[in-house]
Design brief:
The chain is an alpha/beta fold. The protein has two domains: 127 residues, Leucine Dehydrogenase, chain A, domain 1 (Rossmann fold, 3-Layer(aba) Sandwich), CATH 3.40.50.10860; 140 residues, Rossmann fold (3-Layer(aba) Sandwich), CATH 3.40.50. The chain is built from twelve helices and twelve strands. Strands 2-1-3-5-6-4 form a six-stranded mixed sheet, sandwiched between helices. Strands 9-8-7-10-11-12 form a six-stranded parallel sheet, sandwiched between helices. The radius of gyration is 19 Å and the shape is globular. Bound molecules: 2'-monophosphoadenosine-5'-diphosphate. The site of 2'-monophosphoadenosine-5'-diphosphate (ATR) has 15 residues, from helix 6.
């Protein structure tokens, strides 16, 4: 769509940024709602991230998303952080106030939970402990969101046990750090299993785990979305578990930023999913 001189401008800051699906995603919504706005890729080298974030205000941007490897640096550069970004120490969404103030937030946990609720509408926090594979940045957002949703115990199973312990220390609440070989025992009474590691992603090693102990009533969510249906999801589906694909987290995490910058609550629809999936295939 053609834009005017008054267009609202946002973008995604990353390095590299060429693989990002966010311009396609926000561009779809801008077209769909006929908004006078633009959303562009912003390739920023790590050495320039602080200057680039402050430049958003000087250039009149409404805000930006922040992706790998800049999420922690963006948290340090922001003038203020919302509670969630402060707790996670990472920012994926920036809004620029009228006075030029940079506010950092983190919508990854929101995206995860909205995706889980849409994909598994019968899932309830009371159904049992959550088991989260991985203890990286994505795991932090997922674990915090599960705790907020009322899950009584979140078991974090990680190859490097100390990293799971660190996550538990940093976030607080009822988080049980576990080594990888404790996975089978951890699955026994689980209400939901979430993979936050890159295992199972195209080009990565397989996620080689034994699901035998997992209750059939448990929901299984992989945040990997390339391929759309990972081996974890297809194996879980085959044994009767409800499965939630990872692409939805990407789509839902984008909603709060779009609403803040462009003044329209956007919707995640099957057409949007199809539009993004086409790019994954390409
Ligand atoms: P992100 O920010 O996307 O979560 P990350 O911080 O690099 O990425 O975290 C990746 C997670 O996947 C970590 O939990 C990592 O385990 P370690 O803490 O032991 O490194 C996990 N991971 C990556 N490759 C793995 C592998 N081959 N086997 C098991 N876990 C793996």
């Amino acid at each position: 769509m053609a834009i005017s001189g008054k267009a609202a401008i946002a973008g995604v800051i990353g390095w590299p940024v060429g693989h990002s699906l966010s311009p396609r995603l926000h561009g779809y919504w801008l077209d769909c709602y006929g908004i006078d706005g633009a959303y562009i890729p912003l390739a920023v080298e790590p050495a320039d991230i602080i200057a680039a974030i402050h430049a958003l205000a000087k250039l009149g941007f409404a805000g930006a998303n922040v992706t790998v490897p800049h999420k922690q640096a963006a948290a340090a550069a922001a003038d203020r952080l919302d509670d969630n970004a402060r707790r996670l120490g990472a920012v994926n969404t920036i809004t620029v106030g009228k006075d030029g103030t940079i506010t950092g937030s983190n919508t990854d946990g929101f995206g995860f939970m909205e995706n889980l609720r849409h994909g598994a509408p019968d899932w309830r926090a009371e159904h049992g402990p959550a088991v989260v594979l991985g203890a990286g940045g994505a795991a932090r957002a997922v674990v915090a969101a599960l705790g907020d949703a009322g899950v009584a115990e979140v078991r974090v199973v990680n190859r490097t046990f100390e990293r799971a312990e660190q996550l538990a220390d940093d976030l607080g609440g009822n988080i049980s750090p576990l080594p990888w070989d404790a996975l089978s025992d951890a699955l026994g009474d689980a209400g939901v299993l979430v993979n936050t590691t890159p295992l199972g992603m195209a080009g990565q090693a397989r996620l080689d785990i034994d699901l035998a102990a997992l209750p059939v009533a448990a929901v299984v969510n992989d945040i990997v979305y390339a391929p759309l249906e990972t081996e974890l999801l297809s194996a879980s589906r085959a044994r009767g578990n409800t499965v939630v694909e990872g692409i939805g987290m990407l789509l839902h995490q984008a909603r709060p930023g779009f609403a803040a910058w462009f003044g329209q609550e956007p919707e995640v629809t099957p057409e949007l999913r199809k539009h993004i999936v086409e790019a994954l295939k390409g």
